[in-house]
C-alpha cells in the first residue's frame, strides 16, 4: 500500500506540474495515459486534485509567504502537492513530510532537498499558527 500511495503522490505532482506546460489539463486523461505505468490509487489521486483545486489560493498564499524567490518550479509544485495532501490529512504530518522529502530526492539536488525540507517545516508551522489564532 505504501508504494501505491507514493505512486499516487508522484503522479499528482507530475499532473499539476505538467498542466502548466501542456494541453493535458484533464485528470481522467492523465490517469488513462499513466494507468499502465505503475500501480496507483485512483481515488487518492482524485482526492488530492480536489483538495488542490479547492484550496489553491490558500496553498499559493502559504507557499508564497516563505522564501518563494529562492526556490524553483519543481520545488513549488512539490510544495503544492504536499500542502494539498496535508490539508486532507494534517494528522499524518510527519509521514507526509518524510514521503515528500523522499519524492523530492528524485527531482532536486541535495542542497535543494534540504531547503525543501526547511520550507515544508516553515509552511506547516505558519499554517498551524494562523489556524490556532
The proportion of strand residues reads: under 5%
CATH class: Mainly Alpha
CATH architecture: Orthogonal Bundle
CATH superfamily: NusB-like
Biggest sheet details:
none
Give the radius of gyration.
Answer: 14 Å
Secondary structure class reads mainly alpha
The end-to-end distance, rounded to whole angstroms, is 36 Å
Uncertain regions: pLDDT < 50 for 5+ in a row? Answer: none
Query: Which whole number gives the mean pLDDT?
Result: 79
Number of strands: 0
Helical residue percent band: over 70%
SSE sequence, one letter per element = HHHHHHH
Globally, the shape reads globular
Number of helical elements: 7
CATH topology: the name is N-utilizing Substance Protein B Homolog, Chain A
How many discrete domains? Answer: 1
